[in-house]
Amino acid sequence: MAGTINFFLKKPGLSGRSLIVLRWKYSGFDLIFSTAQSIAPKNWNNRKQVVKSNIETTSSGEVHLNEYLTTLKSVLQKSYNSELKTGIPTPDVLRKYLNDFVKQHIKKAEPENSLWQLITRFRAGEIRDKHGKSKTAGTLRTYGIVAGHLKTFEKTHKYKLTYDSINRTFLDRYLNYLEFDAKLSINTRSKNLQILKVFLNEAHERGYTDNTFFKKISVAWEESEAVALSRREIKLLYDYDFSDNDRLERVRDLFVFGSNVGLRISDFSRIQPHHIFEKDGGLRIKIQTQKTGGVVEIPCNDQVVSILKKYNYHLPKISDQKFNKFIKEACREAGLTQTGRLLKEPEKPLFEAIASHTCRRSFCTNLYNEGVPAMVIMRISGHKSESAFIKYIKISQTDAADKLSAHFRKLKESKLVAV
Predict the structure, then answer these.
(1) Is there a domain that residue 247 lies in?
(2) Is there a single domain that holds both residue 235 and residue 203?
(3) CB of 75 within 8 A of CB of 98?
(4) What is the pTM of this model?
(5) Distance between CA atoms of 231 and 367, rounded to whole angstroms?
(6) Distance CA 340, CA 266 (A)
(7) Which of 113, 178, 223, 260 could pair with 208 as two cysteines, CB 3.0-4.6 Å apart?
(8) For residue 419, what pLDDT is reported?
(9) CA 234 vs CA 240, 253, 334, 362: distances in Å
(10) Secondary element (H or E) of residue 39
(11) How would DSSP label each residue in 84-141?
């Protein structure tokens, strides 16, 4: 075939989603065809012309979106080769094959109140929270991931998902799929079930189903084995000379910056000069967080100010994946190789446990250890509840014992309490 079959996105509509369009220039012709599918632009890999997540589905929830696009391209190639026997086909001729594929391959829409239609509405952001607020982009992305797992389960295990089919048999099979097929951690599996319960609770409240089995689904969480770096360890990393390696120097600077502001990487990587202002003789950052939509105000310490000035208030850009890969390399080179920090994997060196989320955990843990009240830290970190915040505090059994021992000494010295 002449030329290359390409996919591109049209300008986003009011929903914020962009239509995926197929285009193929061949033998003087220019074929443009709507795939009838849309996606949020940030979930599209423009260079590879594919959806970033392999579990993103079509609007009906019936087919994985990348699989759909691959099949559509194959239909075009086969129809072209077939018509070529009688001459080069025109775009109108080829569109008929593509339209037939769209009609035959995508099943008729589910009833308006069906489980899959409800999930589609959740993913589109049509269903607001109980306070009438719109769901954040991160929440909508999570809905898409859960929908992808449900669709994969339905397809591979040949288990038709309806409101009535959500029962003990489903739960057993789905949990096995999440653990052994998808190979998800216990907390990721629990998050998946939590979101599924959100879907089913909404359906029950709207009167779509009287099946209440979902209320019996328990969600178990395992305490994270993630680590937090101490002030001393952060300074060790901050002071290390990476002048001969720009890549590691940039990721180190971003990590130290994040460890001092407490923001998620999705937020501190967006900081621009207009987010920074002066107050009380120092600099502060004021930004609206993506996940919760809340506005936080953060005073900048010397390390943060130094890094901001170093990059002229425009921090380097790096993907989450590369950040998590490079920071491990930087921490290993800086000497953060201690073992025994993880209870389940005591032989694992410290640098291997460090990722972008370590920044936020380190911020919260260090301030908490330094006696800053939890509610003050939460106002800076943006945590909505103390239960969510406390999960970020990483204190070892030894640290806890040391703190209690110091507390007893103070009581004894004060002679207020007999100990």
Answers:
(1) yes
(2) no
(3) yes
(4) 0.62
(5) 10
(6) 30
(7) 113
(8) 42
(9) 10, 11, 10, 9
(10) strand 29-39
(11) GGGSPPPHHHHHHHHHHHHHHHSPPPPPTTSHHHHHHHHHTT-S--TTSPPPPHHHHH
Residue linked to tokens 């009438």: 132
Range of the domain at 67: 5-105
**Residue 387 pLDDT:** 79
Q: Which residues have C-beta within 8 Å of that of residue 201, sequence separation ≥ 6?
A: 214
The two beta strands, 282-288 and 18-26, are unpaired
Residue 142 lies in a domain: yes
Residue at 170 is within a domain: yes
Q: Token pair of 150, please?
A: 């449900």
How many structural domains does the chain have? 3
Average pLDDT, the chain: 90
Per residue in 150-209, pLDDT (tens digit) is 999 999 999 999 999 999 999 999 999 999 999 999 999 999 999 999 999 999 999 999
Asked if 196 and 125 sit in the same domain, the reply is: yes
Within-domain flag for 97 = yes
Strand extents, DSSP E, 328-390: none
Residues 83, 177: one domain?
no
Asked if residues 195 and 138 have their Cβ atoms less than 8 Å apart, the reply is no
Same domain, 149 and 60: no
pLDDT at 131 over 50: yes
CATH of the domain at 262: 1.10.443.10
- As a whole-number percent, the residues of the chain with pLDDT over 70 amount to 93
| Residue 397 and residue 260 share a domain | yes
Query: Quick one: 204 and 265 in the same domain?
Result: no
Q: Which residues contact 152 (CB under 8 A, 6 or more apart)?
A: 55, 64, 177, 181, 182
Question: DSSP letters of 21-38?
Answer: EEEEEETTEEEEEEEEEE
Tell whether 385 and 255 lie within a shared domain.
yes
d(CA 253, CA 234): 11
Q: How open is the CA angle 391-396-397, to the nearest 5 degrees?
A: 115
What pLDDT digit, counting tens, does each position of 54-102 carry? 778 887 767 889 999 999 999 999 999 999 999 999 999 999 999 999 8
Residue 409 pLDDT grade (very low, low, confident, very high; cuts 50, 70, 90)? confident
Lookup result for tokens 């955990």: 361
The string of DSSP letters for 200-215 reads: HHHHHHTTS----GGG
92: burial class by Cβ within 10 Å (0-12, 13-18, 19+)? exposed
Domain end, chosen from 184, 216, 248, is at 216
Q: Which pLDDT does position 418 carry in this prediction? A: 46
* Of the residues 79, 105, 131, the one at which a domain ends: 105
